[in-house]
Predict the 3D structure of the following.
Amino acid sequence: MYAQFYNLSEKPFNPNPDPKFLYLTPSRREALASMIYGINERKGFISITGEVGTGKTTLIYTLLNNLNEKVKPVIIQHTMITFEQLLKSILLKLGVPLGDEDKTSLLHKLNEYLVQGLSQGETLAIIIDEAQNLPIDTMEELRMLSNLETSKLKLVQIVVVGQLELEVKLDSEELRQLKQRIGIRRQIIPLSKKESREYIEHRLSLVGSSSSRVFTSEAVSLICRYAMGIPRTINILCDNAFLIGYSLSQKKINGKIVKEVIDDMRVHMAEDFSPPFLSHLSLAPFKKAFASRSLPVYFFSIIFLLSIPLLVLTNK
């Protein structure tokens, strides 16, 4: 829609995890290199974590494009599952026929597949996205996969990728044995303000434009300040700013347009921040304050959260 209006070859800020648009900061470069190295060198377990929206899934797809042709990758994205369901999912993705096997039989089938692959010089890499959602029991049983090995090397490489909650789980007492088996552990950090500007410039350069051509300096500063280094938020802000600019037939996005996008996002955040059991209460004054920035966001959130127990008790 707006791409042609702004003379862009395609939309530069789509939310899809497209490796083409990957912007490699030091922490992202290190995470990618660590995954490639860990898989190629058969290090067993690898952990990659980062805040929501920092580009973890994009890194996974970039990894797939950089793996040795002898590496067989299996991606698991639905993670609220038991260990037995995980094994079945892996085997099905590998094309292994299944019947009514129990957990032990499933492990045996996977081991047979791995041994056969090893004889052909192949490596299996199981990449689990959103791994923070794996139940504790499932994560604990992941250790069983590390037992699939020869006297010299690991038969399966496991990459767990997830939000920072995954770090907390891995540091828990219940998973201390799993933690000991993690050979590589990396964290993706949010972009700095300088990196945020470079991120915007990088994506625009790939579609035949530049930030100075389509954004004012104020607009870029506002986007970087509000996004707080989260690439997904930058994408949302820029994409919506282009939409509004297009609707106004405005060739250059200014601070006023970006402020409108930010205010809309604040209103939606306030609307989402309405627990069902408080639906009969009027939250309009709070939402208005939240959107207009007349109250600091964190102060508002803390006060509101602290008041929930009292509201529940008084409305019983």
About this structure: The chain is about 55% helix and 10% strand. The longest strand covers residues 156-162. The first helix runs from residue 2 to 5.
